[in-house]
Structure formats: structure tokens, C-alpha cells
Amino acid sequence: MRNKLLISICSTAFIAFSAYAADMNGDDGVMKVPAQSVAPMQDNNSAMMAAPAVRKLPVARDGEIIDSVGSGATEPVLTSVQTSDGINYITGGVGDEELAVLKAQEDNYNAHLLLTSMNGEYMGDVALSFLDKQGNEVLKVDSAGPLFYVNLPAGTYNVEATSSSGLMQKAKLTAGAKASKGKVVIRFKE
Known about the structure:
four-stranded antiparallel β-sheet; Immunoglobulin-like; alpha+beta; globular; 2 helices
């Protein structure tokens, strides 16, 4: 169904472009360019057509191009650094753009969590609680995942992760000076 729709859309776009191109060509075979798309070159008196801005679209794992602009969807809101009790963290990773933003920030944090189901599907909306050796709650986050990066004081923590369906998993996490020392994957049986 999607392929038929894509072929139909491409055919329609090609026909519309062909008609537009035919209207733009003059009797001498030279394409007429609207005045607003011509920009003068700075080192020359001749004019040059301005290149259109090209937006690279994300591609799904199955190769399908993902373009939500114009379909009523809004542009993605990229995640930002959050702070709780003086501890900085960043969470998210839903969608290729957000995942890329998070991966670029990975080295800025000394502890990393990946929240997944047993079959490897990313999970979001997971409540996290970080407890120090004495059992004191150092950080609580109501909704995290699938990636969660945090700057914790150096030490070992018990992490309690509760999925949106109420399942709880526990893990030990060591936060040190280097980010590579504090990586944990928490898997839920959902």
C-alpha cells in the first residue's frame, strides 16, 4: 500500500514539475528564472541562481524515508539537559534525530543507562531512582528512557527502574571519572 502511494505521489510530483519546467522555458530553450531566485556574485557583475536549501530527511531501518513535515506532525523537540538537586542528566532517544543528539552528548556524563524490553526494543516512560550505599535517594526521575545519561558523584549506586506498567528492575551502577565505567542496560520482561 505504501509503495503504491509513494509511486502515485512521485508520479504526480513529476507531472507537476514537468508542467512547471515547460512553463519556465522560453522560446529560445533557455529557462526563465524568477527575479527573487537570482543573487549577484560578489566578485563578478554576472548573476547566479541561488541554491535551494536542502533538508536531509531521516531514513527508517527498513529504508523508508521519514518526512513528517506537511502531514500535520510537528517538528521533533530535541531533548535538553535537566537538573535535579544539582545533578545534571539528559534522557530520550526516541527517533533518529533525538538519538543522534544524545549520542553526541554521551562523553559529557559519567553514568549511562539503556532501558529496553527483553527483546531489545527501546523503552521510555520509565521511573528511575538512584540510591547511594546508605540507601539514600540521590536522584529521582519520573520519566526517562530509552537512553539516560547522568553526572553522579563518584560512587556505587543501586538503581530502581519502574516501567509504565509497574514492573521493577534493579541494577548496580558505578559512576566514576570516566564515562565508560558507568554503563548499564536494564531489561524489562514486558
